[in-house]
């Protein structure tokens, strides 16, 4: 979960993988809340452009909160390349950072070449399609630590 101070909203990200019958694909999904009770897709989110506009009134601080109301933040053809995503906002650098364990398409199996990837975004926005992931979400391979156990600390800001 990440607090977005500019929009005064909480952003909850999670991983979804198509595990059914040899399915393919994975997504980092996102739901947003202005009150901590109702979670879903903001009424100011445009599905065509994938842009979340800042609400300008209480009427715009609403979300569609049905079972299927979420935003696909990042999509991938591999089932397990974004396991256990951890997302933080670094206000010192004004950047959103995502770490995830990449296990390709095999999942949590010991003795394989898993590695941690880091992605970053200036806005953490919902417009993180797979085609834009290396442009709007820069991608870095970080090594083989598991679990990543990452946390931000102001002591280490440069």
How is this structure best described in words?
With 158 residues, this protein is mainly β. It is built from no helices and twelve strands. The strands form four sheets. A four-stranded antiparallel beta sheet has the order 1-2-3-8, with no helix packed on it. The chain has a four-stranded antiparallel beta sheet with strand order 9-10-11-12, with no helix packed on it. The chain has a two-stranded antiparallel ribbon with strand order 4-7. A hairpin with a 4-residue loop joins β5 and β6 (51-52). It is globular.
Record keyword descriptors for this entry.
12 strands, 4-stranded antiparallel beta sheet, 158 residues, mainly beta
Strand % is 35-45%
What string, H for helix and E for strand, traces the elements in order?
Answer: EEEEEEEEEEEE
Major beta sheet summary: 4 strands, antiparallel
The pLDDT mean sits at 77
The number of E-state strands comes to 12
What are the segments in which pLDDT stays under 50 over at least 5 consecutive residues? Answer: 127-137
Shape: globular
Helix content: under 10%
Rg, Å, rounded: 16 Å
Largest beta sheet: what is the strand line-up? 1-2-3-8
The helix/strand class is mainly beta
Give the end-to-end Cα distance, rounded to a whole number of Å.
Answer: 24 Å
Helical region count?
A: 0
């Amino acid at each position: 979960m990440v607090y977005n101070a500019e929009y005064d909203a909480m952003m909850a990200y999670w991983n979804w993988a198509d595990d059914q019958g040899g399915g393919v694909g994975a997504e980092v999904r996102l739901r947003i809340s202005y009150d901590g009770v109702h979670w879903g897709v903001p009424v100011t989110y445009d599905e065509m452009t994938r842009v979340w506009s800042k609400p300008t009134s209480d009427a715009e601080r609403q979300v569609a909160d049905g079972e299927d109301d979420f935003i696909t933040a990042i999509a991938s053809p591999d089932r397990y390349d974004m396991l256990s995503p951890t997302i933080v906002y670094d206000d010192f650098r004004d950047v959103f950072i995502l770490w995830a364990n990449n296990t390709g398409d095999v999942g949590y199996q010991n003795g394989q070449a898993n590695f941690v990837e880091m992605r970053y975004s200036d806005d953490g926005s919902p417009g993180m399609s797979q085609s834009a992931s290396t442009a709007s979400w820069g991608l870095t391979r970080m090594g083989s630590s598991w679990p990543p156990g990452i946390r931000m600390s102001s002591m280490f800001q440069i």
